[in-house]
Amino acid sequence: MDVTPAVVVAGSVVSFSLVTFVVWGVDKCKAEREAWRIPEKTLLLLAFFGGWPGAWFAAKVFRHKSSKQSFRRKLLAVTALNLVVFGWILWSFR
Hints:
The protein is an all-alpha fold. It has three helices and no strands.
């Protein structure tokens, strides 16, 4: 079975999105309990490695990080950068 770069990218996005969604949910629970939080850098790093769809979905579902505009701008930048990187990968291996 020949695995194409598109399959690898899609698998990465799905896998990291699931992990990112769960991590954001955990962070939301911790925020509500005023417990130790997951650093924003970690949340953004997960989004960068392909978890951005999960991050945006989690922000909507959990209403987490949705009012913090500075974080939303960083997430938007990470999403755009991720799309550029994955686009470059797909373009390079056509």
